[in-house]
Write a structure and sequence with these properties.
Blueprint (H helix, E strand, L loop, with lengths): L5 E2 L5 E2 L2 H7 L4 H12 L4 H24 L10 H21 L2 E11 L4 E10 L3 E8 L5 H18 L7 E7 L11 E7 L1 H25 L2
Parallel strand pairs: 5-6
Antiparallel strand pairs: 1-2, 3-4, 4-5, 6-7
Helix pairs in contact: 1-5, 3-4, 5-6
Length: 219
């Protein structure tokens, strides 16, 4: 999903959820992975580009499915499509078995209370109202929970206070380390108890984001 500028009611530009979280994102795992690639005689830039293709392709497939639009296969090589198809079929199986449906996709909102914006991947109905997000990643990390159950949930609750959220779904496609690694699909669910924990931390990080910018100007 492309980054977009968010503006408050006064027309002032404000940060997005991912911009705030990226300022505090822990990068140790990424640094180790790049080091490990070099240790094995690989250029992490080339490995990342090659390995990301199938994950990116599967990511695009699910995005088009959520929008109810056909997926353009012409932009990808047959080998990439074959790998992505396996992961996408696993997603379709989960979707069919879970009975989940998408009510809104790529919903952009702005918080006047906390002065930030965000675009959530989807609002999911699984018998109850939940937020949904899909990732291409080697695992689930704290910033993902802070993004969905923190920032996005705050946005939803501010705009739709009468529509209670009951949890979050994160759909994850694996991020392979080598070009010929298979792509896997994983579904993760957290109940409503996650909201209070993540929202309190996100609000702290939102406040710290402004304080950090102020301190930077003092240098």
């Amino acid at each position: 999903m492309p980054t977009q500028p968010y503006k408050n009611a006064a027309g002032k530009r404000i940060p997005g959820v991912t911009t705030i979280l990226n300022r505090w994102k822990e990068s140790g795992g990424l640094i180790y992975w790049a080091w490990d690639q070099g240790r094995n005689g690989l250029d992490f830039r080339e490995t990342t580009n090659a390995a990301a293709d199938a994950g990116t392709c599967a990511h695009a497939m699910i995005e088009q499915d959520w929008h109810g639009k056909p997926f353009d296969r012409s932009a990808y090589k047959p080998k990439v499509l074959a790998k992505a198809d396996h992961a996408f079929l696993a997603y379709l199986k989960w979707k069919s078995q879970s009975g989940c449906s998408i009510t809104q996709a790529e919903l952009s909102l702005v918080s006047e209370r906390y002065q930030f914006g965000g675009t959530m991947d989807a609002v999911i109905v699984d018998g109850e109202l939940c937020l949904g997000d899909y990732k291409t990643s080697g695992g689930v990390y704290p910033d993902m929970l802070l993004q969905v159950a923190g920032g996005y949930a705050l946005l939803w609750q501010e705009h739709f206070p009468d529509q209670t959220l009951h949890g979050i779904h994160i759909l994850r496609f694996s991020k392979p380390h080598q070009e010929d690694d298979p792509i896997s699909f994983h579904h993760h669910y957290w109940s409503a108890e996650i909201f209070k924990i993540c929202q309190e931390q996100f609000i702290r990080l939102r406040e710290a984001f402004d304080a950090d910018k102020r301190i930077a100007k003092l240098i």
